């Protein structure tokens, strides 16, 4: 028995991104950075240098996920298609909510490659901590905040999803009620992913707004062309068809520029909904849940780019219908021209056949004359005297028969042409 070349990779993929075993008190900084023009290999090398600067070890070449536990600091790096995430853990709370951790090198944020697209700061309170609700009110006192019991009541979460601080991170306060280590790790990871995927999903909103403006402009141009279709004069179809082709090319260009972004946004938002459902939220009286907040605040953005994609698709269909209508008109005009040309050729052919029919009489006379002369010459050369006179007389008597025979032959030859006519 032989092993498949990808057997080990398939087996390892199931355990490629495990949850960490975490406990309270805990402070977490989570960053999502776009790769931009850099390759994942370049980013991996720079993050590896950052790990070494923090006192850890360099990452293995080709790694797409790496977790390293130091004394009080833990580092987690994960690569995605168009961005990567870096999560920093420290077993200590920070009442001032500073966006840094002990043990990080000086200027550590400048060592991170890419552009920051989203991030979250999480603090996990121990089960023995009292006054957690008051802490949430004091932390988010300037804004409306949301919260719920999660993980079947094993924890409680509060946040306002507002980007603040040096790196504009969202702040989330978690109260550990009865979570074990891996359960806490799952909760932290899900909260980080909800924030990250929400931010990346919203990248589709700006292209959607631009698409709306472009589609509105193309809609007006198409409407003007459609109105003129019924007023077109013969010969003007070519210019109008060229204008429709230009509109179609512009619509396809817009679609090609945005289809990947809109598809990615849909996929990321689906992950957000999935991660929220995995929290198993139970509502706290007087507060919105995370699911309600996301549905009310993010769903309108989702409808925006979906509406943009639908408008673009409908525009393409309308252009195609108008182009087909115009092509039908052009084809009909072409068919009429071809029909006229064929009719003209048919008329010329008919005139030729009529002329040929009129010349049949002369043809019969000429053929009869030459045939009679040929036979007469033959008789005169082959006979003489009385037999010659008898043969000449019979030839003269048979002249009507010769004429009828020639007429019949000519009619037979021209019969198929007349039937075609």
Uncertain spans:
none
**How many strands, what sense, and barrel or not for the largest sheet?**
9 strands, mixed
Task: Count up the helices.
Answer: 11
Rounded to the nearest angstrom, the radius of gyration is 45 Å
Number-wise, the strands total: 9
Strand order of the largest sheet: 2-3-4-1-5-8-7-6-9
Please write the string of helix (H) and strand (E) elements. Answer: HEHEEEEHEEEHHHEHHHHH
Alpha-carbon distance between the two ends: 80 Å
Class inferred from helices and paired strands: alpha+beta
Proportion of residues in extended strands:
5-15%
> What is the share of helical residues?
55-70%
| Shape call | elongated
- The total tally of domains equals 3
Mean pLDDT: 85
InterPro entries: DUF3422
Transmembrane segments: 355-372, 392-410
Keywords: Membrane, Transmembrane, Transmembrane helix
Protein name: Membrane-anchored protein
Written overview of the protein:
By secondary structure, the chain is an alpha+beta fold. It has 3 domains: 16-188, no CATH class; 203-336, Methane Monooxygenase Hydroxylase, Chain G, domain 1 (Up-down Bundle); 359-420, no CATH class. The protein is built from 11 helices and 9 strands. The chain has a 9-stranded mixed sheet with strand order 2-3-4-1-5-8-7-6-9, sandwiched between helices. A hairpin with a 3-residue loop joins strand 2 (65-69) and strand 3 (73-79). Helix 9 runs antiparallel to helix 10 (386-397). The longest helix is centred in the C-terminal third of the chain and has 60 residues, at 299-358. The radius of gyration is 45 Å and the shape is elongated. 25% of the residues are buried. Keywords: Membrane, Transmembrane, Transmembrane helix. InterPro entries: DUF3422. This is Membrane-anchored protein.
